[in-house]
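Exercise 7. Given the encoded structure of a 260-residue chain, write a plausible sequence.
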């Protein structure tokens, strides 16, 4: 049997390769072992953000409060109707990754893609916030779009009328702290409260602008832009415009007609 000379070039490569193999096995095992914990953390984070706009405070644990007040549903964006027989449960529907999957996505025409996302899923998960009697008090819709430096992801909670904003939160973005990152500021998010998505004539209402009209015709629709972060604010406005005037249009029309 040949004895390995660890000081030789060949011996050095053998040791390095063996070390790399051991490390790869350890890392792979750790990824597999930690997988369930990572998924649980992702689910917990999603539940926390949904509850932030649900109108209900966390009582006890996040999971128990979520189970008590939130019902997840899938919506077919073309028809605006709930999907009852999807192979993927609403709670497991990852619209971020599925938006890149040809079996689940649709391409957005360039003239409609103001959110600059190119594709979206055919279905989207939405969340019904329910009181103790099972009555839906808010509809929570995810939305997203490209801002200045990153894709901004958030949730908007709507009144059952399907038109009045009750809360907004952003749970993922890479905008500049102190500038575009001010979309996380509760004071700015509070400006969205009670703004209307559409006007009485059906035209677009909600609008993030540097020149808000707080006392005239825009008082029910205009939100102040972010000082020093015009492009981030514009990106959020474009995202809201695309999702609530286009992607969710059929669903919101059904909701306003009382057909959901």
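Solution.
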């Amino acid at each position: 049997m040949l004895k390995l000379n660890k000081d030789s070039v060949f011996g050095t490569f053998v040791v390095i390769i063996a070390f790399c193999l051991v490390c790869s096995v350890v890392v792979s095992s750790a990824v597999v072992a930690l997988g369930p914990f990572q998924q649980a953390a992702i689910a917990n984070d999603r539940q926390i953000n949904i509850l932030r706009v649900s109108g209900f405070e966390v009582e006890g644990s996040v999971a128990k409060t979520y189970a008590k007040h939130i019902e997840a549903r899938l919506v077919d964006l073309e028809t605006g109707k709930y999907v009852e027989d999807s192979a993927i449960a609403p709670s497991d529907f990852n619209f971020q990754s599925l938006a890149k999957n040809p079996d689940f996505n649709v391409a957005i025409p360039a003239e409609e893609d103001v959110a600059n996302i190119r594709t979206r899923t055919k279905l989207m998960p939405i969340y019904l916030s329910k009181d103790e009697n099972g009555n839906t008090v808010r509809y929570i819709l995810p939305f997203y779009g490209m801002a200045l430096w990153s894709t901004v992801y958030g949730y908007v909670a709507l009144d059952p009328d399907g038109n009045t904003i009750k809360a907004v939160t952003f749970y993922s973005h890479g905008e500049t702290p102190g500038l575009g990152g001010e979309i996380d500021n509760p004071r700015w998010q509070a400006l969205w409260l009670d703004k209307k998505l559409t006007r009485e004539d059906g035209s677009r209402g909600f609008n993030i602008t540097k020149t808000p009209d707080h006392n005239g015709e825009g008082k029910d629709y205009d939100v102040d832009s972010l000082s020093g972060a015009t492009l981030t604010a514009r990106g959020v406005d474009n995202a809201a415009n695309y999702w609530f005037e286009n992607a969710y249009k059929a669903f919101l029309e059904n909701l306003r007609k009382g057909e959901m």
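Remark. The helical segments are 9-52, 62-69, 95-98, 186-189, 230-247, 249-256. Students should compare their own answers with the one above.
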